[in-house]
C-alpha cells in the first residue's frame, strides 16, 4: 500500500500536466476558424459573437456553484473528469452538426467544461506550498497556453488540408484520451479540514482583494476573447489569411502568452513587483489592439499580436495568482470559482459587443474601442492595486 501511495505522489504532477494539456488542447483545436466557420454557414457577425460568447456565459453561471460544491464535497478529481467529458461531447457534437443552433449549444457545453478549470487550478496548487500559489498558477497557465497553442497550430493545419470539420474531430479524440487519463488523477485534500459554511462563503466573496482582481480580469478576458480568440482571425482573412494562417496567427499570440505566464509568475513579479507587471500587461494589450485595423501585412499582424500575447500572459497570470494567494486552502475553490465566474463576463460580453459593433459599424472601429478599453484598464490597475507586491485595494 505504501508503494502505491509513493507511486501516486511521484507521478501525480506529470499526470496532471498531461490531463491539463489534453483538456485545453481539445477545446481549442477549432477556435481560430470558429467565427469564420459560423459566418460561412450563414451566420452574421452578431451570431458569431453569440456563439463565441456562449462559452464565457456558461462559465460565468457555473463557476461559483462548482467552486462551492468542490469545497464542500472535497472531490476535485470528480469535477475534472466531468470537465473532460463535456469537452469530448462538445467537440464531437460540433463535428456531427452544421446547424447554427446546435453549434451554439455544443459551444456552450465547452463553457461548462471550462468551468471546471476551478478544480484544475485549486488541485494543482494544493501540490505546492501554500505561499507558492503564484508559482503554481504560473506553471499551470503555461501548460494551458502551450496546449492552446499546439491545438490551434494543428487545428489550422487540419482545417487547411482536410477541412474545418476535422478540427472538431481532433478535439473529440484528444478529449477522450484526457477523459480516460483523468480517472488516475490524485486528489489532495486535508481530511480533517471542515467543509465551508454559508457564512464563510459570504466572507470569501466579500474579500476586497478578490473583488479587485476579478474586476481587472473581466476586462482582460473581454480583450482576449474579442480579439485573438474572437475576431482577429476574421480581420486576418480580409488581408489574405487562409485557415492555416489564422491558426498560425493565434499560435504566435499564444506562445508568448504561455511563456509570460511561466516567467511572469515565477521571476518577473518577484523582480519588479506584481503591480507594475499587471499595468504593463494591460498597456501592451491596449496599444497593440488599436493597431490591428491599421495593419495591412499578415506578418506584421502576427508580430504585434505576439507582443500583445506576452502582455496578456503576464497580467492575467498575476491576477489569477492574487485571487487565491491569501485565501486558506479549504476556501480556495470558492474564491477561484468567484474569480473565474466574474471574468466570464468579459468572455461573454466581449465577443457579443464586438459582433454587434461589427454589424452596426465595422470591425476596425470595434478594435479601436477595445484598445482604448485596455489602456483605461491599465490606469484602473494603477488605482486599485496598492504599491506592494501582493495587496490590492478598492
From TrEMBL:
Keyword Transmembrane appears in the UniProt entry: yes
Ranges where the Major facilitator superfamily (MFS) profile domain occurs: 12-389
Location, primary (coarse class): membrane
Residues annotated as transmembrane: 15-35, 47-66, 78-96, 102-124, 136-159, 165-189, 210-236, 248-269, 276-294, 300-322, 334-354, 366-385
UniProt gene name: yajR
Protein name: Inner membrane transport protein YajR
Recorded GO MF terms: transmembrane transporter activity
Subcellular localization: Cell membrane
CDD domains, per database record: MFS_YxlH_like
One Pfam family from the record: MFS_1
UniProt keyword annotation of Membrane present: yes
Keywords, alphabetical: Cell membrane, Membrane, Transmembrane, Transmembrane helix, Transport
Topology versus the membrane: Multi-pass membrane protein
Cellular-component GO terms for this entry: plasma membrane
Amino acid at each position: 500500500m505504501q508503494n502505491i501511495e509513493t507511486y501516486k505522489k511521484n507521478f501525480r504532477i506529470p499526470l496532471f500536466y498531461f490531463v491539463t494539456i489534453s483538456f485545453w488542447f481539445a477545446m481549442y483545436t477549432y477556435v481560430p476558424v470558429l467565427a469564420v466557420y459560423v459566418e460561412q454557414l450563414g451566420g452574421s457577425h452578431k451570431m458569431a459573437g453569440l456563439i463565441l460568447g456562449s462559452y464565457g456565459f456558461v462559465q460565468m453561471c457555473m463557476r461559483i456553484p462548482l467552486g462551492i460544491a468542490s469545497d464542500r464535497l472535497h472531490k476535485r478529481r470528480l469535477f475534472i473528469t466531468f470537465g473532460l467529458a463535456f469537452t469530448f461531447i462538445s467537440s464531437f457534437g460540433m463535428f456531427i452538426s452544421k446547424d447554427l443552433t446546435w453549434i451554439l449549444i455544443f459551444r456552450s457545453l465547452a463553457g461548462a467544461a471550462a468551468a471546471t478549470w476551478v478544480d484544475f487550478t485549486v488541485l494543482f496548487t494544493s501540490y505546492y506550498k501554500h505561499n507558492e500559489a503564484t508559482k503554481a498558477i504560473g506553471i499551470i497557465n503555461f501548460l494551458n497556453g502551450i496546449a492552446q497553442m499546439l491545438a490551434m497550430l494543428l487545428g489550422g493545419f487540419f482545417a487547411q488540408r482536410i477541412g474545418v470539420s476535422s478540427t472538431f474531430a481532433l478535439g473529440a479524440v484528444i478529449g477522450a484520451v484526457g477523459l480516460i487519463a483523468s480517472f488516475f488523477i490524485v486528489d489532495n485534500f486535508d481530511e480533517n479540514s471542515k467543509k465551508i459554511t454559508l457564512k464563510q462563503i459570504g466572507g470569501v466573496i466579500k474579500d476586497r482583494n478578490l473583488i479587485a482582481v476579478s474586476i481587472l480580469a473581466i476586462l482582460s478576458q473581454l480583450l482576449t476573447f474579442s480579439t485573438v480568440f474572437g475576431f482577429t482571425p476574421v480581420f486576418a482573412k480580409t488581408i489574405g489569411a487562409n485557415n492555416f494562417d489564422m491558426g498560425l496567427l493565434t499560435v504566435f499570440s499564444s506562445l508568448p502568452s504561455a511563456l509570460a505566464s511561466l516567467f511572469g509568475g515565477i521571476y518577473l513579479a518577484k523582480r519588479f513587483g506584481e503591480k507594475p507587471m499587471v499595468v504593463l500587461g494591460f498597456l501592451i494589450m491596449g496599444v497593440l489592439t488599436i493597431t490591428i485595423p491599421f495593419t495591412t501585412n499578415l506578418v506584421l499582424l502576427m508580430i504585434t499580436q505576439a507582443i500583445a500575447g506576452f502582455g496578456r500572459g503576464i497580467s492575467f497570470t498575476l491576477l489569477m495568482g492574487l485571487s487565491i494567494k491569501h485565501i486558506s486552502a479549504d476556501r480556495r475553490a470558492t474564491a477561484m470559482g468567484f474569480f473565474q465566474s466574474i471574468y466570464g463576463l468579459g468572455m461573454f460580453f466581449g465577443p457579443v459587443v464586438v459582433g454587434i459593433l461589427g454589424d452596426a459599424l465595422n470591425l476596425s472601429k470595434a478594435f479601436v474601442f477595445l484598445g482604448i478599453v485596455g489602456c483605461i484598464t491599465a490606469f484602473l490597475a494603477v488605482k486599485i492595486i496598492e504599491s506592494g507586491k501582493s495587496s490590492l485595494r478598492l
